[in-house]
Design goal:
The chain has 204 residues and is mainly α. It has helices spanning 16-33, 63-71, 83-88, 97-129, 141-159, 164-175, 182-200; strands spanning 2-3, 10-13, 38-39, 45-46, 134-136.
Length: 204
């Protein structure tokens, strides 16, 4: 992995195995962001079902019942939720389950849409990297950082990393298992994030 320094735009080069790794990580990440989306071979979400309109019989449903149920406060039980989802979409008010549920209801769709847009952006970047060095504009750094941070959060949840102690434990476990690729990917993402931050701050 190499990235030019100085003033933007910057040039980013990744090894073929690094672009492959990012693609695999995006395939793991995208279903977490929107499990209702089916990802095709091009990494695009299939939303054709959403365009078909309501199912037969929907018109007979009581619209007032629909709105009442939609607007009724509901506390979501997150105890059995995927730890990665709890990190990607944390509770806004950890000490107030009802307020967190209300905040989540009004903001979750927008958060998911932004993350899916970032995923689509990075997939296009990976396609471009297959042809050679990628030109990264200053305005694109935040998207790279958002995706890299999200991918690292997902891997941290899989490794059980929540603090420095568990991070050290995960590193020792990885050293004892040469076949492990999750921890090396976690470390590589840390290097990528550091490079992106240093470049954006104009540091060599």
């Amino acid at each position: 992995m190499k990235m030019s320094t100085g003033q933007p735009p910057w040039s980013l080069e990744l090894e073929p195995e690094e672009t492959w790794l990012l693609g695999i990580l995006l395939d793991v990440y995208q279903p977490l962001v929107d499990p209702d989306d089916e990802v095709d071979s091009d990494g695009e979400a299939d939303r054709t079902e959403d365009l078909d309109g309501p199912e037969d019989g929907d018109a007979d449903d009581d619209c007032f019942d629909f709105w009442e149920s939609d607007l009724s406060p509901t506390v979501i039980d997150r105890d059995h939720e995927d730890p990665a989802l709890r990190r990607l979409f944390p509770d806004a008010y950890p000490d107030d389950a009802l307020a967190s549920a209300e905040f989540r209801r009004f903001t979750l769709a927008g958060q998911r849409r932004e993350r899916l847009d970032d995923i689509a952006f990075l997939r296009r970047a990976l396609d471009a990297l297959d042809e050679g060095p990628l030109i990264v504009q200053e305005s694109q750094i935040d998207q790279w950082l958002r995706v890299a941070n999200a991918l690292r959060l997902v891997l941290a949840s899989r490794l059980g990393i929540v603090d420095e102690i568990t991070a050290d434990q995960a590193e020792r476990t990885a050293e004892q298992d040469p076949s492990d690729i999750v921890h090396p990917a976690y470390e590589w993402l840390g290097v990528l994030i550091e490079i992106l931050i240093e470049v954006s701050w104009g540091q060599d």
